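Appendix B. Raw example, untouched.
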Amino acid sequence: MEDHYRRILTDSDKRLVYFVQEQVLDKNSPYYGAFIDRRGVSEAKVTLYRLETIIACYLCSDSKYYKNKNVYERILAGLKYVKSVQHENGLFDYVSCNFNSAPDTAFCLVAIVPPYQVLRDKKDRSPEEETIYKELGDIIYNGAKGIMEGGFHTPNHRWAIAGMLKLCGRLFDDDVMYASADRYLAEGIDCNEDGEYAEKSAGNYNSVNNDAMIMLAEATGDTSFEDHVCRNLEMMLTYWEPNGSIFTANSTRFDKDLIVYPLAYYTEYMLMAQKRKNDTFYQMCNTIMDIVRDRDLEAPDVLIYFLKYPQWRKTEFEGSFDNPDYRVFYKNSNIARVRNKYYTYTVMGGKSDFLYFHVGTMQLAMKVAGSFCEHRAFVSEEMKEEDGVFHLHQTMKGWYYLPWTDEKRPETSNWWAMDNAGRDKLHGPDIDIDVFISDAKDGDGLDVRVVTSSDAVKGAPWRVELAFTGGDFLENEHLATTLTGSETITIKDGYTAVSNARDTITVGPGFGAHHFMEGKEDSELTTAGASTIYFTDYTPFDRTIQIRNGRSSFADL
Protein backbone atom coordinates (compact mmCIF):
# COMPACT_ATOMS: atom_id res chain seq x y z
CA MET A 1 0.00 0.00 0.00
CA GLU A 2 2.67 2.45 -1.06
CA ASP A 3 0.16 5.15 -2.04
CA HIS A 4 -1.47 4.86 1.37
CA TYR A 5 1.92 5.14 3.02
CA ARG A 6 2.83 8.28 1.08
CA ARG A 7 -0.42 10.04 1.96
CA ILE A 8 -0.16 8.99 5.61
CA LEU A 9 3.46 10.18 5.74
CA THR A 10 2.58 13.55 4.21
CA ASP A 11 -0.22 14.12 6.68
CA SER A 12 1.94 12.97 9.60
CA ASP A 13 4.56 15.57 8.72
CA LYS A 14 1.81 18.20 8.61
CA ARG A 15 0.49 17.10 11.99
CA LEU A 16 3.95 17.42 13.51
CA VAL A 17 4.08 21.08 12.50
CA TYR A 18 0.87 22.06 14.25
CA PHE A 19 1.44 19.69 17.18
CA VAL A 20 4.72 21.35 18.13
CA GLN A 21 2.92 24.70 18.22
CA GLU A 22 0.94 23.32 21.16
CA GLN A 23 4.01 22.41 23.20
CA VAL A 24 5.01 24.42 26.27
CA LEU A 25 8.68 25.41 25.98
CA ASP A 26 8.93 27.70 29.00
CA LYS A 27 11.39 25.84 31.24
CA ASN A 28 10.04 27.70 34.26
CA SER A 29 6.53 26.39 33.67
CA PRO A 30 5.31 23.29 35.53
CA TYR A 31 3.93 22.22 32.15
CA TYR A 32 7.27 22.39 30.34
CA GLY A 33 7.21 19.80 27.53
CA ALA A 34 3.45 19.25 27.68
CA PHE A 35 1.19 19.56 24.67
CA ILE A 36 -1.87 21.70 25.43
CA ASP A 37 -5.11 20.60 23.80
CA ARG A 38 -7.67 22.93 22.27
CA ARG A 39 -9.46 23.27 25.60
CA GLY A 40 -6.29 24.63 27.19
CA VAL A 41 -5.82 21.43 29.21
CA SER A 42 -2.55 19.56 29.65
CA GLU A 43 -2.34 15.91 30.64
CA ALA A 44 -0.27 12.85 29.93
CA LYS A 45 -2.68 11.35 27.40
CA VAL A 46 -2.65 14.32 25.04
CA THR A 47 1.12 14.59 25.22
CA LEU A 48 1.70 10.88 24.62
CA TYR A 49 -0.57 10.75 21.57
CA ARG A 50 1.19 13.78 20.12
CA LEU A 51 4.53 12.11 20.81
CA GLU A 52 3.42 8.93 19.02
CA THR A 53 3.10 10.90 15.78
CA ILE A 54 6.24 12.96 16.33
CA ILE A 55 8.38 9.94 17.20
CA ALA A 56 7.09 8.15 14.09
CA CYS A 57 8.23 11.07 11.93
CA TYR A 58 11.59 11.18 13.71
CA LEU A 59 12.14 7.46 13.06
CA CYS A 60 10.87 7.41 9.46
CA SER A 61 13.65 7.88 6.91
CA ASP A 62 11.16 9.32 4.40
CA SER A 63 9.94 12.03 6.75
CA LYS A 64 11.09 15.62 6.48
CA TYR A 65 11.84 15.39 10.20
CA TYR A 66 13.88 12.19 10.17
CA LYS A 67 16.46 12.44 12.97
CA ASN A 68 15.84 16.17 13.21
CA LYS A 69 17.72 17.57 16.20
CA ASN A 70 15.03 20.07 17.15
CA VAL A 71 12.36 17.37 16.95
CA TYR A 72 14.52 15.15 19.18
CA GLU A 73 14.68 17.89 21.81
CA ARG A 74 10.90 18.26 21.61
CA ILE A 75 10.49 14.53 22.16
CA LEU A 76 12.72 14.58 25.23
CA ALA A 77 10.85 17.56 26.67
CA GLY A 78 7.54 15.78 26.15
CA LEU A 79 8.76 12.59 27.79
CA LYS A 80 10.14 14.59 30.71
CA TYR A 81 6.71 16.16 31.25
CA VAL A 82 5.01 12.76 31.09
CA LYS A 83 7.34 11.39 33.75
CA SER A 84 6.65 14.41 35.93
CA VAL A 85 2.90 13.69 36.01
CA GLN A 86 3.19 9.91 36.35
CA HIS A 87 2.32 8.97 39.91
CA GLU A 88 4.73 7.02 42.08
CA ASN A 89 2.59 3.92 41.53
CA GLY A 90 2.93 4.38 37.74
CA LEU A 91 -0.61 5.55 37.04
CA PHE A 92 -1.73 8.67 35.22
CA ASP A 93 -4.68 10.97 35.77
CA TYR A 94 -7.32 11.67 33.16
CA VAL A 95 -7.78 15.10 34.60
CA SER A 96 -11.31 15.73 33.33
CA CYS A 97 -12.72 12.89 35.45
CA ASN A 98 -10.47 9.96 36.52
CA PHE A 99 -7.48 10.05 38.86
CA ASN A 100 -4.93 7.31 39.51
CA SER A 101 -6.75 5.56 36.70
CA ALA A 102 -5.71 2.10 35.52
CA PRO A 103 -7.80 2.14 32.31
CA ASP A 104 -6.73 5.64 31.33
CA THR A 105 -3.11 4.66 31.94
CA ALA A 106 -3.65 1.73 29.60
CA PHE A 107 -5.00 4.12 26.96
CA CYS A 108 -1.93 6.32 27.47
CA LEU A 109 0.43 3.41 26.94
CA VAL A 110 -1.40 2.32 23.78
CA ALA A 111 0.11 5.37 22.09
CA ILE A 112 3.75 4.64 22.93
CA VAL A 113 4.00 0.87 22.89
CA PRO A 114 4.24 0.75 19.05
CA PRO A 115 7.21 3.19 18.87
CA TYR A 116 8.81 1.28 21.74
CA GLN A 117 8.41 -1.96 19.77
CA VAL A 118 9.83 -0.35 16.62
CA LEU A 119 12.91 0.81 18.54
CA ARG A 120 13.25 -2.53 20.31
CA ASP A 121 13.45 -4.32 16.96
CA LYS A 122 15.92 -1.82 15.51
CA LYS A 123 19.38 -3.40 15.57
CA ASP A 124 21.46 -0.26 15.12
CA ARG A 125 19.87 2.29 17.43
CA SER A 126 21.62 5.66 17.51
CA PRO A 127 22.42 7.20 20.91
CA GLU A 128 19.37 9.46 20.52
CA GLU A 129 17.14 6.53 19.63
CA GLU A 130 18.55 4.61 22.58
CA THR A 131 17.57 7.46 24.89
CA ILE A 132 14.02 7.58 23.51
CA TYR A 133 13.79 3.79 23.78
CA LYS A 134 14.86 3.82 27.43
CA GLU A 135 12.56 6.70 28.36
CA LEU A 136 9.58 5.00 26.69
CA GLY A 137 10.43 1.72 28.39
CA ASP A 138 10.50 3.31 31.83
CA ILE A 139 7.12 4.99 31.31
CA ILE A 140 5.53 1.84 29.91
CA TYR A 141 6.85 -0.55 32.54
CA ASN A 142 5.98 1.72 35.47
CA GLY A 143 2.57 2.35 33.98
CA ALA A 144 1.90 -1.36 33.56
CA LYS A 145 2.90 -1.96 37.19
CA GLY A 146 0.32 0.62 38.19
CA ILE A 147 -2.33 -0.93 35.96
CA MET A 148 -1.94 -4.16 37.93
CA GLU A 149 -3.73 -2.39 40.81
CA GLY A 150 -6.80 -2.49 38.56
CA GLY A 151 -10.20 -0.88 38.71
CA PHE A 152 -12.43 0.19 35.82
CA HIS A 153 -15.69 1.96 35.03
CA THR A 154 -16.89 0.76 31.63
CA PRO A 155 -16.93 -2.50 29.65
CA ASN A 156 -14.14 -1.51 27.25
CA HIS A 157 -11.82 -0.60 30.13
CA ARG A 158 -11.45 -4.29 30.97
CA TRP A 159 -9.97 -5.16 27.61
CA ALA A 160 -7.67 -2.13 27.51
CA ILE A 161 -6.28 -3.19 30.89
CA ALA A 162 -6.06 -6.89 30.04
CA GLY A 163 -4.44 -6.29 26.67
CA MET A 164 -1.82 -3.95 28.07
CA LEU A 165 -0.98 -6.26 30.99
CA LYS A 166 -0.56 -9.27 28.72
CA LEU A 167 1.55 -7.37 26.21
CA CYS A 168 3.74 -5.66 28.81
CA GLY A 169 4.13 -8.96 30.64
CA ARG A 170 5.67 -10.30 27.43
CA LEU A 171 7.71 -7.17 26.66
CA PHE A 172 9.30 -7.10 30.11
CA ASP A 173 9.31 -10.85 30.91
CA ASP A 174 7.09 -10.30 33.93
CA ASP A 175 4.98 -13.39 34.55
CA VAL A 176 3.05 -11.82 37.42
CA MET A 177 2.08 -8.88 35.25
CA TYR A 178 1.10 -11.23 32.43
CA ALA A 179 -1.08 -13.37 34.71
CA SER A 180 -2.78 -10.39 36.35
CA ALA A 181 -4.86 -9.90 33.20
CA ASP A 182 -6.61 -13.22 33.65
CA ARG A 183 -9.14 -11.99 36.21
CA TYR A 184 -10.50 -9.60 33.58
CA LEU A 185 -10.50 -12.15 30.79
CA ALA A 186 -12.35 -14.61 33.04
CA GLU A 187 -15.46 -12.45 32.59
CA GLY A 188 -15.62 -13.39 28.89
CA ILE A 189 -15.39 -11.07 25.91
CA ASP A 190 -18.60 -9.08 25.34
CA CYS A 191 -18.65 -9.33 21.55
CA ASN A 192 -21.86 -11.05 20.48
CA GLU A 193 -22.58 -13.25 17.47
CA ASP A 194 -23.38 -10.19 15.36
CA GLY A 195 -19.92 -8.74 16.03
CA GLU A 196 -21.25 -6.01 18.33
CA TYR A 197 -19.65 -5.10 21.65
CA ALA A 198 -21.68 -4.18 24.73
CA GLU A 199 -21.47 -0.40 24.29
CA LYS A 200 -22.48 -0.54 20.60
CA SER A 201 -20.07 2.29 19.94
CA ALA A 202 -19.34 2.04 16.22
CA GLY A 203 -17.84 5.54 16.22
CA ASN A 204 -15.26 4.92 18.93
CA TYR A 205 -15.18 2.09 21.46
CA ASN A 206 -15.73 -0.79 19.04
CA SER A 207 -12.42 0.16 17.46
CA VAL A 208 -10.84 0.52 20.91
CA ASN A 209 -12.02 -2.99 21.74
CA ASN A 210 -10.70 -4.36 18.45
CA ASP A 211 -7.28 -2.88 19.19
CA ALA A 212 -7.32 -4.51 22.62
CA MET A 213 -8.24 -7.88 21.09
CA ILE A 214 -5.36 -7.55 18.61
CA MET A 215 -3.04 -6.75 21.50
CA LEU A 216 -4.23 -9.82 23.39
CA ALA A 217 -3.71 -12.03 20.35
CA GLU A 218 -0.21 -10.62 19.85
CA ALA A 219 0.73 -11.15 23.48
CA THR A 220 -0.78 -14.60 24.00
CA GLY A 221 -0.57 -16.16 20.54
CA ASP A 222 -4.28 -17.03 20.92
CA THR A 223 -5.85 -16.10 17.59
CA SER A 224 -9.37 -16.59 18.96
CA PHE A 225 -9.14 -12.98 20.14
CA GLU A 226 -8.88 -11.99 16.49
CA ASP A 227 -12.18 -13.76 15.81
CA HIS A 228 -13.97 -11.00 17.74
CA VAL A 229 -12.18 -8.39 15.64
CA CYS A 230 -13.14 -10.06 12.38
CA ARG A 231 -16.79 -10.41 13.40
CA ASN A 232 -16.90 -6.73 14.27
CA LEU A 233 -15.17 -5.72 11.03
CA GLU A 234 -17.65 -7.83 9.05
CA MET A 235 -20.53 -6.14 10.87
CA MET A 236 -19.00 -2.75 10.17
CA LEU A 237 -19.26 -3.43 6.44
CA THR A 238 -22.98 -2.77 6.91
CA TYR A 239 -22.50 0.38 9.01
CA TRP A 240 -21.21 2.77 6.31
CA GLU A 241 -23.58 5.55 5.32
CA PRO A 242 -23.85 6.95 1.75
CA ASN A 243 -21.60 9.91 2.70
CA GLY A 244 -18.83 7.60 3.94
CA SER A 245 -19.51 8.16 7.63
CA ILE A 246 -20.31 5.50 10.22
CA PHE A 247 -23.81 4.92 11.58
CA THR A 248 -23.50 5.93 15.24
CA ALA A 249 -27.08 6.45 16.45
CA ASN A 250 -27.13 3.04 18.14
CA SER A 251 -24.21 3.89 20.42
CA THR A 252 -24.65 4.05 24.18
CA ARG A 253 -21.62 6.35 24.49
CA PHE A 254 -20.57 9.88 23.55
CA ASP A 255 -20.28 9.10 19.83
CA LYS A 256 -24.08 8.71 19.48
CA ASP A 257 -25.26 10.71 16.46
CA LEU A 258 -21.80 12.15 15.80
CA ILE A 259 -20.48 12.24 12.25
CA VAL A 260 -17.48 9.91 12.41
CA TYR A 261 -15.47 8.58 9.49
CA PRO A 262 -13.91 5.10 9.68
CA LEU A 263 -10.25 6.15 9.93
CA ALA A 264 -9.71 4.32 13.23
CA TYR A 265 -10.49 1.01 11.54
CA TYR A 266 -7.68 1.25 8.97
CA THR A 267 -5.01 -0.67 10.91
CA GLU A 268 -7.54 -3.29 11.99
CA TYR A 269 -8.70 -3.99 8.45
CA MET A 270 -5.11 -4.05 7.22
CA LEU A 271 -3.82 -6.38 9.90
CA MET A 272 -6.75 -8.78 9.69
CA ALA A 273 -6.60 -8.72 5.87
CA GLN A 274 -3.04 -9.98 6.04
CA LYS A 275 -3.55 -12.46 8.84
CA ARG A 276 -6.82 -13.89 7.53
CA LYS A 277 -6.10 -13.39 3.82
CA ASN A 278 -9.35 -11.46 3.50
CA ASP A 279 -9.64 -9.56 0.21
CA THR A 280 -12.72 -7.62 1.39
CA PHE A 281 -10.71 -6.19 4.27
CA TYR A 282 -8.00 -5.05 1.84
CA GLN A 283 -10.75 -3.38 -0.19
CA MET A 284 -11.93 -1.59 2.95
CA CYS A 285 -8.44 -0.17 3.48
CA ASN A 286 -8.65 1.28 -0.02
CA THR A 287 -12.17 2.54 0.69
CA ILE A 288 -11.05 4.33 3.85
CA MET A 289 -8.33 6.10 1.88
CA ASP A 290 -10.92 6.92 -0.83
CA ILE A 291 -13.05 8.56 1.87
CA VAL A 292 -10.01 10.53 3.02
CA ARG A 293 -9.49 11.82 -0.51
CA ASP A 294 -13.14 12.43 -1.35
CA ARG A 295 -13.94 14.19 1.94
CA ASP A 296 -10.61 16.04 2.07
CA LEU A 297 -9.78 14.52 5.46
CA GLU A 298 -6.43 13.96 7.08
CA ALA A 299 -5.23 10.39 6.62
CA PRO A 300 -5.32 8.00 9.58
CA ASP A 301 -2.58 8.85 12.07
CA VAL A 302 -0.89 5.46 11.72
CA LEU A 303 2.60 6.10 10.36
CA ILE A 304 4.13 4.20 13.27
CA TYR A 305 2.31 1.04 12.14
CA PHE A 306 3.95 1.21 8.72
CA LEU A 307 7.25 1.20 10.61
CA LYS A 308 6.12 -1.67 12.82
CA TYR A 309 4.82 -3.67 9.84
CA PRO A 310 7.12 -2.67 6.94
CA GLN A 311 5.52 -5.36 4.76
CA TRP A 312 2.43 -3.14 4.51
CA ARG A 313 4.22 -0.92 2.01
CA LYS A 314 4.89 -3.90 -0.25
CA THR A 315 1.32 -5.14 -0.10
CA GLU A 316 -0.84 -3.97 -2.98
CA PHE A 317 -4.48 -4.70 -3.63
CA GLU A 318 -6.58 -3.22 -6.42
CA GLY A 319 -10.15 -2.14 -5.98
CA SER A 320 -12.28 -0.69 -3.22
CA PHE A 321 -15.19 -2.19 -1.33
CA ASP A 322 -18.18 -1.72 -3.62
CA ASN A 323 -20.69 -1.46 -0.74
CA PRO A 324 -23.36 -3.72 -2.26
CA ASP A 325 -27.00 -3.59 -1.27
CA TYR A 326 -27.72 -5.55 1.90
CA ARG A 327 -30.48 -6.32 4.36
CA VAL A 328 -29.33 -7.54 7.75
CA PHE A 329 -31.19 -7.95 11.03
CA TYR A 330 -28.78 -8.25 13.94
CA LYS A 331 -31.20 -9.76 16.40
CA ASN A 332 -28.73 -9.94 19.28
CA SER A 333 -28.09 -6.22 18.90
CA ASN A 334 -31.73 -5.29 18.17
CA ILE A 335 -30.87 -3.39 15.00
CA ALA A 336 -31.61 -3.82 11.30
CA ARG A 337 -29.53 -2.17 8.58
CA VAL A 338 -30.69 -1.97 4.97
CA ARG A 339 -28.94 -0.48 1.96
CA ASN A 340 -30.85 0.10 -1.24
CA LYS A 341 -28.38 1.56 -3.74
CA TYR A 342 -28.91 5.28 -3.07
CA TYR A 343 -29.95 5.26 0.56
CA THR A 344 -29.69 3.35 3.79
CA TYR A 345 -32.14 2.96 6.60
CA THR A 346 -31.82 1.67 10.13
CA VAL A 347 -34.48 0.26 12.44
CA MET A 348 -33.67 -0.09 16.15
CA GLY A 349 -35.53 -1.72 18.98
CA GLY A 350 -35.44 -0.20 22.46
CA LYS A 351 -34.75 3.33 21.15
CA SER A 352 -37.06 6.35 20.98
CA ASP A 353 -35.44 7.43 17.69
CA PHE A 354 -36.23 4.06 16.15
CA LEU A 355 -35.81 4.84 12.43
CA TYR A 356 -33.05 6.60 10.48
CA PHE A 357 -33.24 7.22 6.72
CA HIS A 358 -30.01 8.45 5.11
CA VAL A 359 -29.73 9.59 1.47
CA GLY A 360 -26.16 10.86 1.41
CA THR A 361 -26.14 14.53 2.34
CA MET A 362 -29.34 14.36 4.38
CA GLN A 363 -30.72 12.26 7.19
CA LEU A 364 -34.17 11.80 8.69
CA ALA A 365 -34.73 10.43 12.20
CA MET A 366 -38.22 9.38 13.31
CA LYS A 367 -39.80 8.94 16.70
CA VAL A 368 -43.36 8.60 18.00
CA ALA A 369 -43.97 10.62 21.13
CA GLY A 370 -46.67 11.41 23.65
CA SER A 371 -47.21 11.35 27.39
CA PHE A 372 -48.69 8.42 29.25
CA CYS A 373 -47.98 7.97 32.96
CA GLU A 374 -44.15 7.98 33.22
CA HIS A 375 -43.66 7.47 29.48
CA ARG A 376 -42.79 10.34 27.14
CA ALA A 377 -42.06 8.49 23.89
CA PHE A 378 -42.52 5.15 22.20
CA VAL A 379 -39.62 2.80 22.99
CA SER A 380 -40.27 -0.66 21.63
CA GLU A 381 -40.16 -3.71 23.88
CA GLU A 382 -40.23 -6.10 20.92
CA MET A 383 -38.72 -5.98 17.44
CA LYS A 384 -39.18 -8.65 14.80
CA GLU A 385 -39.26 -9.08 11.05
CA GLU A 386 -42.35 -10.60 9.46
CA ASP A 387 -42.60 -11.11 5.68
CA GLY A 388 -40.13 -8.33 5.00
CA VAL A 389 -41.80 -5.90 7.43
CA PHE A 390 -40.10 -4.72 10.61
CA HIS A 391 -42.59 -4.69 13.46
CA LEU A 392 -41.92 -2.74 16.66
CA HIS A 393 -44.28 -3.02 19.64
CA GLN A 394 -44.71 -1.53 23.09
CA THR A 395 -47.48 -1.80 25.63
CA MET A 396 -47.51 1.18 27.98
CA LYS A 397 -49.15 0.14 31.22
CA GLY A 398 -51.12 2.65 33.22
CA TRP A 399 -51.09 2.60 37.03
CA TYR A 400 -51.85 4.65 40.12
CA TYR A 401 -50.59 4.37 43.68
CA LEU A 402 -53.09 3.31 46.33
CA PRO A 403 -53.12 4.50 49.96
CA TRP A 404 -51.04 2.45 52.36
CA THR A 405 -52.74 -0.55 53.88
CA ASP A 406 -52.63 -0.87 57.65
CA GLU A 407 -50.05 -3.63 57.31
CA LYS A 408 -47.68 -1.63 55.11
CA ARG A 409 -48.15 1.92 56.36
CA PRO A 410 -44.78 3.42 57.37
CA GLU A 411 -44.31 5.36 60.58
CA THR A 412 -43.14 8.49 58.76
CA SER A 413 -45.34 11.04 57.02
CA ASN A 414 -42.38 12.28 54.97
CA TRP A 415 -43.16 11.34 51.37
CA TRP A 416 -39.49 11.21 50.39
CA ALA A 417 -38.65 8.87 53.25
CA MET A 418 -41.40 6.42 52.29
CA ASP A 419 -40.62 3.31 50.25
CA ASN A 420 -43.32 4.12 47.73
CA ALA A 421 -42.25 1.28 45.45
CA GLY A 422 -43.80 -1.01 48.05
CA ARG A 423 -47.28 0.51 47.74
CA ASP A 424 -50.14 -1.41 46.22
CA LYS A 425 -51.16 -0.12 42.81
CA LEU A 426 -54.31 0.26 40.77
CA HIS A 427 -53.43 -1.01 37.29
CA GLY A 428 -54.71 0.27 33.96
CA PRO A 429 -55.59 1.53 31.50
CA ASP A 430 -53.00 0.41 28.95
CA ILE A 431 -52.14 1.59 25.46
CA ASP A 432 -50.57 -0.48 22.67
CA ILE A 433 -48.29 1.13 20.11
CA ASP A 434 -47.22 -0.69 16.97
CA VAL A 435 -44.98 0.53 14.18
CA PHE A 436 -44.63 -1.35 10.88
CA ILE A 437 -41.78 -0.39 8.53
CA SER A 438 -41.77 -1.75 5.00
CA ASP A 439 -39.98 -1.02 1.75
CA ALA A 440 -42.08 1.00 -0.64
CA LYS A 441 -43.35 -0.88 -3.66
CA ASP A 442 -41.71 1.66 -5.96
CA GLY A 443 -38.38 0.71 -4.38
CA ASP A 444 -37.27 4.20 -3.48
CA GLY A 445 -38.28 4.67 0.11
CA LEU A 446 -40.32 3.40 3.02
CA ASP A 447 -43.88 3.15 4.26
CA VAL A 448 -44.18 3.54 8.03
CA ARG A 449 -47.49 2.60 9.63
CA VAL A 450 -48.05 3.88 13.17
CA VAL A 451 -50.95 2.43 15.18
CA THR A 452 -52.00 3.46 18.69
CA SER A 453 -54.79 1.39 20.14
CA SER A 454 -56.61 1.30 23.47
CA ASP A 455 -60.16 0.82 24.66
CA ALA A 456 -59.71 3.47 27.35
CA VAL A 457 -56.97 5.87 26.24
CA LYS A 458 -58.80 8.16 23.84
CA GLY A 459 -58.06 11.74 22.92
CA ALA A 460 -54.41 11.78 24.03
CA PRO A 461 -52.39 14.20 21.85
CA TRP A 462 -49.56 12.24 20.26
CA ARG A 463 -47.09 13.17 17.56
CA VAL A 464 -44.76 11.72 14.97
CA GLU A 465 -41.45 13.59 14.95
CA LEU A 466 -39.38 13.71 11.76
CA ALA A 467 -36.00 15.35 12.44
CA PHE A 468 -34.09 16.38 9.29
CA THR A 469 -30.37 17.16 9.32
CA GLY A 470 -28.61 18.44 6.23
CA GLY A 471 -31.69 20.04 4.66
CA ASP A 472 -31.87 23.78 4.02
CA PHE A 473 -35.22 24.18 2.24
CA LEU A 474 -38.78 22.98 2.89
CA GLU A 475 -41.65 23.08 0.41
CA ASN A 476 -45.21 21.83 0.11
CA GLU A 477 -48.39 23.08 -1.51
CA HIS A 478 -48.88 25.66 1.25
CA LEU A 479 -45.44 27.16 1.81
CA ALA A 480 -41.82 27.27 0.79
CA THR A 481 -39.15 28.33 3.29
CA THR A 482 -35.47 28.13 4.04
CA LEU A 483 -34.34 26.05 7.01
CA THR A 484 -31.62 26.80 9.53
CA GLY A 485 -31.73 23.59 11.57
CA SER A 486 -33.84 24.76 14.51
CA GLU A 487 -37.42 24.83 13.16
CA THR A 488 -40.41 22.99 14.59
CA ILE A 489 -43.27 22.82 12.10
CA THR A 490 -46.57 20.95 12.20
CA ILE A 491 -47.71 19.83 8.74
CA LYS A 492 -51.47 19.49 8.47
CA ASP A 493 -51.84 17.73 5.12
CA GLY A 494 -50.22 16.78 1.85
CA TYR A 495 -46.62 15.92 1.05
CA THR A 496 -43.61 17.92 2.15
CA ALA A 497 -40.18 17.94 0.52
CA VAL A 498 -37.05 18.79 2.51
CA SER A 499 -34.02 19.36 0.33
CA ASN A 500 -30.57 20.79 -0.19
CA ALA A 501 -28.57 21.33 -3.38
CA ARG A 502 -28.04 17.60 -3.85
CA ASP A 503 -30.77 15.57 -2.19
CA THR A 504 -34.47 15.59 -1.36
CA ILE A 505 -36.53 13.58 1.11
CA THR A 506 -40.31 13.73 0.71
CA VAL A 507 -42.68 12.74 3.54
CA GLY A 508 -46.45 12.56 3.88
CA PRO A 509 -49.34 12.70 3.82
CA GLY A 510 -49.21 15.05 6.77
CA PHE A 511 -51.81 15.26 9.53
CA GLY A 512 -52.07 18.02 12.11
CA ALA A 513 -54.94 17.51 14.52
CA HIS A 514 -53.22 19.62 17.21
CA HIS A 515 -50.03 21.56 17.81
CA PHE A 516 -48.97 20.13 21.19
CA MET A 517 -45.49 19.55 19.78
CA GLU A 518 -43.29 20.00 22.84
CA GLY A 519 -44.98 17.34 24.98
CA LYS A 520 -45.22 17.42 28.75
CA GLU A 521 -42.38 18.17 31.13
CA ASP A 522 -39.47 15.73 30.90
CA SER A 523 -40.22 15.04 27.23
CA GLU A 524 -37.18 14.48 25.04
CA LEU A 525 -35.74 17.60 23.49
CA THR A 526 -35.68 18.13 19.75
CA THR A 527 -32.53 17.00 17.96
CA ALA A 528 -29.87 19.71 18.07
CA GLY A 529 -29.17 21.14 14.62
CA ALA A 530 -32.20 19.47 13.05
CA SER A 531 -35.35 20.89 11.51
CA THR A 532 -38.28 18.96 12.97
CA ILE A 533 -41.55 18.27 11.20
CA TYR A 534 -44.50 17.04 13.26
CA PHE A 535 -47.51 15.01 12.23
CA THR A 536 -50.05 15.10 15.09
CA ASP A 537 -53.20 13.20 16.02
CA TYR A 538 -55.29 12.04 18.98
CA THR A 539 -55.28 8.43 20.14
CA PRO A 540 -56.35 6.00 18.93
CA PHE A 541 -55.10 6.45 15.39
CA ASP A 542 -53.80 4.40 12.47
CA ARG A 543 -51.62 6.41 10.05
CA THR A 544 -49.20 5.46 7.28
CA ILE A 545 -46.38 7.83 6.43
CA GLN A 546 -44.49 7.62 3.17
CA ILE A 547 -40.78 8.46 3.13
CA ARG A 548 -39.31 8.84 -0.33
CA ASN A 549 -35.84 9.48 -1.70
CA GLY A 550 -36.29 12.40 -4.07
CA ARG A 551 -33.25 13.05 -6.25
CA SER A 552 -30.48 10.50 -6.11
CA SER A 553 -32.69 7.91 -7.82
CA PHE A 554 -32.20 9.89 -11.05
CA ALA A 555 -28.44 9.26 -11.00
CA ASP A 556 -28.82 6.37 -13.47
CA LEU A 557 -30.31 8.56 -16.21
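End of appendix B.
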